[in-house]
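We store sequence with structure; for instance:
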Amino acid sequence: MTTRSAFRVPPLALLEASLTMAIWGSSFVVAKVGLREIGPLTLAGLRYFVAFLMLLPFLPRRLAAHGRPSPGLMRRLALLGISAYLVGNGCFFLALQVVPSTTVSFLMGLIPLLVLAGSLFWLKENPTWWQAIGMVICLVGTGLFFTPGIQAQSWRGIPILGVGILGFGFFGLLSRSIARERKIDSLTLTAIPLAIGGGALLVVAIPMEGLPHLTVSGVGIVLLLALVNTAFAYLLYNHALQSLTALQMNLVLNLSPFVTALLAAGILGEKLTPVQWAAMVVATVGVALAQRGQAAESPPASSVPVAGR
């Protein structure tokens, strides 16, 4: 059985989640710049597989210290890679070709709905009243964001985004399920799905888009996305998930459109209306309320040393 407790969110975990949110908020703008010379699936595949290569030198020591993942755990790690990188991010990169970067980022606000349903029926993490109220306010802000309307050509990317949202919803639930067990360290939990998902994405992308002809700026964008926005950010994400519930994490990530909007306005010339800025403020209030309490947790798993701790 699980018990309900209401205690403050660990400050370090909240800081890690907030930093992850800021980094991932910049991803859509950086990726949109990269799409000017690299195909969407190729850019996504290079981002994730190069990130894996950056983590690879540290992986043998982690595996020697904690043991190799069991076959069952490897299957779950493979599902993480497919859902997050091949399906989720692959769809988001495709949609970025026709949908404004801020809109793509903000549509990720639908993910907490999927996470809430999964948390209730799969993870058995029942939200507190504060979290439920905060999520509703976040969703009100999401709806308000789209009241000015959306450009006609952007609608072509919405179904693709829908598939990506489903992939990320599953990823959020499964990664929380694995992280809270503490049977695998954060670096291994980050690296193996990157290798599987990024590799699968390249296998799909290269026959469709051909080999990329990278310029110096293209190489720089790939390295920035791989090192900072992927390897470093996912390490923070997986480490924070040992203390935050899946719903709490996704509500913090729901603030990433603020970062995206500010960067998109300065770099891409994408503008927001006053109503849309107000909508993001409403979403921020919802996130703040949701952090007042911690959802019900499973009994603590045995402690395993993790990266960064």
Observations:
- Residues 11-290 form one domain.
- The chain has one domain: 11-290.
- The chain has a mean pLDDT of 79.
- Residues 23 and 84 are 17 Å apart (CA to CA).
